[in-house]
Write the structure tokens for this entry.
Amino acid sequence: MVPTGRRLATLGTVPELPEVEVYRQRAEAAVGREIAAVDAPDRWYLKHGATPSALGAVLVGTRLRGARRIGKLLLLDTERGPVVGIRFGMTGQLVVDGDSGVGELLYAPVRRDPAWDRLTVRFADGGSLVVRDPRRLGGVTIDPDTSHLGPDALVITRDQLAAALAGSTAPLKARLLDQARVAGIGNLVGDELLWRAGLSPLREAGSLTRDEVARLHRELGRTLAALSGRGGSHRGDLMDERHPGGRCPRDGTELRKSVIGGRTTWWCPLHQV
């Protein structure tokens, strides 16, 4: 679990589960505050029928009553009932009262441009909640459908993980990145997890034994806790070696680069079997 109030020193990361959990914690600072105005200038950023006027009708004059997260999707509950869903893509941040709780993101420009503020919620007390996304790879919805998401990676049980993998001939990493199976595992977390668990990302997901599933489940909790405690999804033991010629921090073997599920993957061919 991401420590409450911990600011992630995240130069060189992307919003994966640890970062979105920090955004959820930042959003709690907005709960209970009266909303005076909503500005959503980028209509393209509003998805699945959401419009600026619809967001205004949902939010203006009311208050948020809670902030939740499923995988990498942030959910803001309103007193009127509708839920505002926010996805952050590769460069999105949630900024509450001027603070996102994280540092610079890997694929986001360092400079600041007001045009990147895709949604601004202004509170009667003068504060604000802003969705800032330079590359526009995220999106905002009203009452998002979450039925397609699997169990959240922070709370998934061993039996649920086993069910997510059972019978699948897909590569193990691809299955773990499938948000319909396990919600919240991103590319960097996936590489670190499988490296720690000693499992090849190329293995058929359904080929894992009961003991291997148990080990994977155990390491999932440990990996998320370690990355959160260190300051983000890019703080894994493997991160500095994810390049040509990089070597396994465990046994010194040269890492292998593969593309799995369209994502660049670094892994150790010696101990990941």
In short: The radius of gyration is 19 Å. The first strand starts at residue 35 and ends at 39. Residues 1-12 have pLDDT under 50 and may be disordered. Residues 210-230 form the longest helix (21 residues).
